[in-house]
Amino acid sequence: MNVLVIGANGQIGKFLVQQLAQEGKHQVTAMIRKPEQADALKQLGANVVIGDLEGSVDDLAEAMKDHNAIVFTAGSGGSTGEDKTLLIDLDGAVKTMEAAQQQGITRYILVSAFGADQREKWSDAIKPYYVAKHYADRALFASDLNYTIIRPGGLKNEPGTGKISVGTDLKPGSIPREDVARVIAASLQEEKTYRMAFDLIAGDDLVEDDLVEDALGKL
User: Fold this and answer.
1) Structure pTM?
2) Catalytic-role residue among 129, 130, 135, 194
3) What pLDDT band is residue 73 in, cutting at 50, 70 and 90?
4) Minimal CA–CA distance to 112: which of 194, 184, 161, 63?
């Protein structure tokens, strides 16, 4: 597959780009906003295309040309205001869904947030972030895309273990960013993850061997 990673300059994005390039199963392109980010991602093995989530749907569709899978792992970050949360995490995500459909791309993976589907689980401290993720998820549910929505728990910078737990009502937990990237990579061509949403934390199931049989089999 020709995979476009949106948010490739973020921490999960960089892990994903590197993993896909090393596996060699797919061609990977990093979508970036700033040209000065290109060299580092090229060194990880990615092609590079310029795109802006605050730009037009048509421009985003042009950036997606010649790809057949989209991964959205972008985010406005904790240092920006609520306006950027709406513009990037919600409207930016929805515009990429519209752009993908405009280009005839059917495979779409969205990195959401743990418990985004259950309002009672939202943290008051970052409630606008959860609102953005919740409604981006809902827009994807309503689309014709073959989506997978991955809702990771607290993100950690420690090395990944390759062991996960997935479910729709898990107790709160955390997971290394590297393992989130592994789950994205393992899901890309796994049809049993199509039109599915699940929470993701560290656990006992192996990503590569057991994602479908053990982990997803529990859903």
Assistant:
1) 0.94
2) 129
3) very high
4) 184
